[in-house]
Amino acid sequence: MPQDTITPTAPSDSPAQSPLVSLPSLFRPSPLDHQLRLSSYFTDRFLLGSAFAFIGGGILGGYHGSTMASLRFRAENSHRFPTTTTGWYQYHKSKNYNCMLRAVKEGLRLGPRLAGWTGAFFLFEELVDRWRLKRDAISSVVAALTLSSLFSLRHRFNLATHLRTARVGLVAGLAYGVAQDILSLAGGRRVGYVDTVFGKHGN
Description:
The structure is a single chain. The chain is mainly α. It is 67% helix and 0% strand. Helix 1 runs antiparallel to helix 2 and helix 2 crosses helix 3. About 5% of the residues have low confidence.
């Protein structure tokens, strides 16, 4: 009986594409680099967004810490207000020192937290972009909902608070994503769901 012959095939030079996206690959060139968000690469958005969030969080934390320290100092010393000019000078000097110290502590506490959550949002957004091979508001909404869920789990919110946090994430992610898509359309870049709605196809 004739035997079937098996012809060996040469191995392919191009590795198989995996649908999963590894974290180190986010900092390497991507096929989506011609579809930039806010005319900037992921590394730029990640670093600048985290830096601005750190500064904003530091300012907000410093203001909150200073205000609370001032109120606490006044309450703790309400029974022994100074009666002389020198006493009032020492009183305000001590109060200002406590306010400044508390402002620095709260600023350094809130700044890194806000920077971390902001960086996580950009990271999730880029992961969804590369998994879908599209950049649009859908990825922003998915990233915002994921982040809001993690935030709720981190702080052990009850169901009602969890739902409110998810609603805030949905609105914020949708507004941010749509704003980016409007800028992209104004710059001449195609947006996937817009082409689907209006029946446009092509590169």
